[in-house]
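WARN  no MSA supplied for this record, continuing single-sequence
INFO  ligand: pyridoxal-5'-phosphate
INFO  echoing inputs
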Amino acid sequence: MIPVNEPLLNGREKELLAECIDTGWVSSDGPFVRMFERHFADYIGTKHGIAVCNGTAALETALFAAGVGKGDEVIMPTFTIVSCLVATLRLGAIPVLVDVEPVTWGMDVGQVASRLTPRTKAIMPVHMYGHPVDMDPVLALARDRGLVVVEDAAQVHGAEYKGRKCGSLGHVSAWSFYANKIVTTGEGGMVLTSDDAMAERAASYRNLCFRADRRFYHTEFGYNFRMSNLQGALGVAQVERIEEFVTIKRRVGHLYRARLAAIPGVRFQVEEAWAKCVYWMYCIELDTELGFKADDARRALAERGIGTRPFFLGLHEQPAAHDIGLFNGERYPVAERIARQGLYLPSGLTITEEQVETVTTELADVVSALSMIHSAPSS
Ligand SMILES: *Cc1c(COP(=O)(O)O)cnc(C)c1O
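INFO  complex generated
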């Protein structure tokens, strides 16, 4: 079986974890959390890093830090993980959707202006599958209208937009270090910002909004979203190798691109001239004209020992959202198409060139076999 992802943990991870155990520093008070925050913020280019327990918590903390609260509207792409939606809802804010554009599958920034209302507070671009969103129009709009920009950067560790790192472009960004992300702490997340006040609010929110002047007195509610020193130790060891990880991801991306170009009906994310894509996962979209869906291809690939994952189903197609009166009757054609025609291929940091070749050979075979079945005339 070629797995869809495997983390690479053969640097100083074991050594630093052992240090946590030997010294007894296992809670969030240990030194590795602060070290990880510093190293990661320095790498991305922000003044502050606030580590939290996962990426979903990072999104909620980032929105809170940005001042998003009850009744505020947050504009986000429908094609994203449910975390963006639940983080918004937990703060009493209202999600407002736009579609994604068909080349990079990132937020269609051209649609954002049409969704603005007097209640709009924030725009949340989600950099998708390693490729940056076209940020200049988003930042210009936010500047004009006095909005905050909260980047979901969970899939773009090391990616660049016009020479600047994703996650340093908006007011605040949210990161995940889940096991399939480019940098992992098993579970984990971080909020990055260069704004002192936002950093302070984020740090407060992850720690139950304890006040420095009067500890068990609360003027706001927060949560316990703290990261442990054990996770921090993994993070420090991982960030030491981030450039190497980015190089591996880009090499795998280029290998796939070269080999997939020969398969008819298969399209892939194209790196824009202004982007440095880190190919978090190598994703493909099967042309609707092929006559079959991503799930058909995924089943056939699984039979051949190749792990894949489906694309996100748009937020506007989620029954749990409809149940609370959200997005009923809304349509976003690009998101709806790619949700059914997209999948991602094995692209972990441990994948070999031979495995990429096997995957693409099997994929070509599966595509031709399935198109034959699905184009057979019915009698
Ligand atoms: C992984 C991911 C998250 C959530 O991160 P968790 O650590 O799993 O909570 C948020 N947004 C995007 C785009 C992601 O890919």
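The mean pLDDT is 97.
INFO  checksum written, moving to next record
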